[in-house]
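Bench log, entry 3. Co-assembly request; chain sequences pasted below exactly as received.
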Amino acid sequence: MENKAPIVEIEHVNKSYHRGTHTIPVLVDINLDIAEGEFLALMGPSGSGKSTLLNLIAALDHLDSGLIKVGGVDITVLSETELAAWRAVNVGFIFQFYNLIPVLTAFENVELPLLLTGLSRRERRTHVELALQVVNLASRMDHYPGQLSGGEQQRVAIARAIVTDPTILVADEPTGDLDRVAAEEILDLMDRLNRESGKTIIMVTHDPRAAKKAHNIRYLDKGILNNVHSQAAP
Amino acid sequence: MYILKLLLRNAFRHKLRTALTILGVTIAILSFGLLRTFINAWYSGAEASSASRLVTRNATSIIFTLPLAYKDKIRQVDGVKLISWGNWFGGIYIEEKNFFANYAVEAKSYIELYSEYVLPQDQKEAFFRDRRGCFVGRKLAERFHWKIGDIIPLKGTIFPGNWEFVLRGIYYGKNEIADETVFFFHWDYLNEALKKRGSIFADQVGFYMIGVKDPNRAAEVAQAIDRTFKNSLAETLTETEKAFVLSFISMSNAIIVAIQLVSFVVIIIIIAVAANTMAMTARERIGEYAIFKTLGYRGWRIGGMIVGESLLITMIGCLLGIALTPPATAVFRKLLGAYFPGFTVKLETVYMALAASILVGLCAAIIPTWRAVSIRIADGLRRIG
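Structure output for the full assembly:
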């Protein structure tokens, strides 16, 4: 795995927030390479900047200085319009609170990213059904989020994240709102996506059990990426 | 189809709020429609006027009369085809609240001139035979439940005394805008009574109605008539029937302007109501808009969802309001038809209501759209949970 070319390259990234006249540094001179097919866990205390770093990698936020390349594309120079198109193709998101659209069924939620592609209705259906089969929810595709358990909703969110076959999957506390059993199922699913489909996964978590599923764990503290803790893939 | 489904489901996420907003738009559009219909009804007399008719009156004021002798000179003016004359009688039927327009007219020429008033032949002949005869519009007869042969008493105001007329005919309009609320009787009957009394109003007429041979020459004929009586004791003012009617309407211009303003204020109020609904909706869904952005949806798509939802809600209310306007108008027509003969919803009013609703939908979505489009994704996502 170490020999693989980095799919994400982060160089000297700085990010700060402004509160009135105060400037609060959130990320300080971050340097990080993430190899293709890697499952990386970002850990650290609350306010350490791990979600901010994830947002920067996923082009949801803007940095102050530095460089981020994903798949060889420098995303820091792209316009908002270009970033929207780039995200649609390259990034799959998994959030702590699932973030499904409550008025859409599981099928329709998964179909959302595909509406931005040129796929026909029939092709979209094939993709959505396949994604829902991967997360083992094909039988519940007509259910609304409110009719699904937390674990099932997160699986729908994962199906939505993978349906466009993105370059990277980013997950922000994907098990943070789940009970232990459901959390284990989600982690197993992510692990399977990484091992069987070779998906590059970057996961922010507080949970050491979740982090254990990752190949690498990186710690952030007060905006500084410090020691490296690698672990073998299970 | 997908977007329409999403808009529908989003619009009815808060059923009570959406229902109340739709109700508000419905009432606003209904009010707008009724007020516009009221204004149109006010102008219906002018619309019903013919381009081939002129009105000649005293140049000083409508309240001054003209000598009957003018009729022969007017008849000789080139371009004049037909001439009739009459007086505003101003009679009151039992009580003042029973107001309706009543005229003494030179009946034969008047009926010929006003071909849009259709009087059955037998009734016409009966009316011509009876000096005390009168004929009235269908709506007026319905209002007071008059039947042919009824004696109708009018109390004179301009021409004092109690006057009695026998109803000999009921006319109806050839088209919807023809006024079916007017009372006509023989000018000769009035004039003979005035002569007997030695009144200064004997052999005096309030106005001449003139039919012209060529409507395109109406202005020229009008000038020729007025030139004929230049420097006489009673100079004339001749104008088209439309201008004559509009000069009456202009006397109540302030009221019409006020009603027009109210009709637009209603729309402004409903813009505020709809904007409030959409602002609440957008504030609640700001996290969802951030999710859409995360998935790659651009600002114009998100803006389209908000504008679409806003338009959907206002258009449902608009269509309900438009659908309710004709029945509501029918009720008002029953109550006010005697005063406003043209109280019917015009297509133009429907178009204005549709345009107003689109305006409401668009205006209501401006601020929510701007907020949703301009919020940073990371900030929007922080609002979830």
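Chain B touches chain A at residues 2, 6, 9-10, 13, 287-288, 291-299, 376-378, 381, 384-385 (CB under 8 Å). The mean pLDDT of chain B is 90.
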